[in-house]
Amino acid sequence: MVVGQNGAHQQEESVYNLIPRVQVQAPKPPRYESKFKSTVRESFKDGKHEHRTMGYADEPVPDPQQFLKKKQNESKTMASSVAKETSSKKDSPQRKPPVPSIRDAPKMGTRTEKNFVQTNALDVVMTVPKKPERNVVDDRFGDKFPIDQSGLAPKYVFKKNFGEVPVYIKTRRDEMEKAKQEYQAYVSDYFRRGAMREMDDNERQTIIDGLKKQWEDVHHEYQTLSVIIDTIPKRQHKERLEHQMQLLEKDIDLLEKHQVIYIAD
């Protein structure tokens, strides 16, 4: 291909370019169409109705030359109301049979052997009388409410087992007492073989009283100390009394806390 002076493209001189060639265009492939096209169109249109809710796109306007007549627009409203009534009738359940007319003859020949007078009398005699409701009035206007459900009436105190100790607590108490007796028997036998004895309650109480009397004496002496402690002997004497009271308190607490005490002979 050669470009000329004016910028136009010129073909090269060749034997094959002497005869003009016919431009052959390839045919286009056929357009794809789904085989479900008709089914989709029908399913899309199914359940849809024209002008059902929004009305006509272009509402027909009456001719200005023609005047409106009386009750001319009631035909449309009546048609819509009739359609609503028919739809509601379809949805409503089946109607009950009509009430018999006054001119209908009753069924004849039906008889019964039941004595209604005697039956009603027995029902009245055997019926348990209804108990009056227990209500309480809480204001001057006469407003009342049941007292049994309000919590104001004593309800649980009248039970047969009210105030009794539950069975599981009794069982647990017996088990604890039995375990305690077994432990005391085991400890007594163990210390008996080790030449130890158990302190009885009288001896224990006597020791506690003696310790308390000794603590009162030391405390009285501590109260008689001088207010001003300006020398080393006074300070040492005060510290010694405080130490004695602490030891006595510790011994008293030990004896009062433990009920069983063993002493080595």
From TrEMBL:
One GO cellular-component annotation of the UniProt record comes to: axonemal microtubule
Q: Where is this region: Disordered?
A: 1-111
Q: Name one GO molecular function term.
A: calmodulin binding
Q: Which Pfam families match?
A: Enkurin
Q: For the Enkurin domain, which residue ranges apply?
A: 171-263
Q: Where in the cell is it found?
A: Cell projection, Cilium; Cytoplasm, Cytoskeleton
Domain of life of the organism encoding this protein:
Eukaryota
* InterPro entries associated with the record: Enkurin_dom (IPR027012), Enkurin_domain-protein (IPR052102)
Q: Which PANTHER family match?
A: ENKURIN, ENKURIN-RELATED
Q: What is this protein called?
A: Enkurin domain-containing protein
